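## Example record

The block below lists the input lines for one assembly entry, exactly as stored, with component labels intact.
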Amino acid sequence: DVKVTQSSRYLVKRTGEKVFLECVQDMDHENMFWYRQDPGLGLRLIYFSYDVKMKEKGDIPEGYSVSREKKERFSLILESASTNQTSMYLCASSLSLLTGEQYFGPGTRLTVT
Amino acid sequence: DQQVKQNSPSLSVQEGRISILNCDYTNSMFDYFLWYKKYPAEGPTFLISISSIKDKNEDGRFTVFLNKSAKHLSLHIVPSQPGDSAVYFCAASVLEMDSSYKLIFGSGTRLLVRP
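Predicted structure tokens for the full assembly:
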């Protein structure tokens, strides 16, 4: 079974803080993704990575950066957290980019106060 | 500009009956269409997919239909079971000529299967 784990289930941070969200997958997948899920908006892609040290912007990259130093680990960084970044953050990995079949972690509920 | 739309936020069905979840899209270049299921406090799980060159794919109780002329996708669950109660997201993927990639999700439909 593919396992995607995220470092925290719940996180509360203050406005202006730097926030790190970590994601680890154990299936040797090339591709990893970060999404945010908001009510009525579905899942929106923030960034994805198709190889170590490679990254591509998704639909809503503003205010975020990512890091992929090892194949199994993909980090999402909020350089200066803002209240509009309060959301559910989901990490995913996949073997094939094209087919769209992705394996998701349980999510991190981030609240920025 | 929502390229993938699920116009029904919720659906309630009696156990044993058919559940039909619908999805519309605008981009005729999408390569694959997928359905994901999400339970509360869990990440989405992949359910079933269909290539843009097909019109039907079946896996057990789940069948996905693709109508390209109408740009419409549907998921049929028959018979519906209480354990199917979840939020269902449709999604569409495209790998562009410049190698950029998109997987675009709809806003989700909450299915409730009543015992």
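The first strand of chain B starts at residue 4 and ends at 5. The mean pLDDT of chain B is 93.
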